[in-house]
């Protein structure tokens, strides 16, 4: 984010951070209890579900605002 700002990035950008969620954030309602096969991408079902729901609305709004 700092690098974008430092170089005058002309488009909107926002960093969404969910400290207890893992690296595997999907659209909402994707089962968070189904872990990622042989990969441990961190997080837990509750915090992953929150990150999915919270970020999805923000992503949709970002795309709407950008058109």
Automatic annotation (TrEMBL):
Superkingdom, taxonomy of origin: Bacteria
GO MF entries: hydrolase activity
Positions of the BAAT/Acyl-CoA thioester hydrolase C-terminal domain: 2-65
Coiled-coil stretches: none
Keywords: Hydrolase
UniProt-listed Pfam families: BAAT_C
Alphabetical list of InterPro entries matching this protein: AB_hydrolase_fold (IPR029058), BAAT_C (IPR014940)
Protein name, per record: Acyl-CoA thioester hydrolase/BAAT C-terminal domain-containing protein
């Amino acid at each position: 984010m700092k690098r974008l700002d430092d170089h005058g990035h002309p488009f909107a950008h926002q960093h969404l951070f969910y400290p207890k969620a893992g690296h595997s954030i999907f659209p909402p309602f994707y089962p968070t209890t189904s872990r990622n096969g042989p990969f441990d991408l961190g997080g837990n079902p509750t915090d992953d579900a929150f990150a999915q729901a919270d970020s999805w609305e923000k992503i949709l709004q970002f795309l709407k605002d950008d058109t």
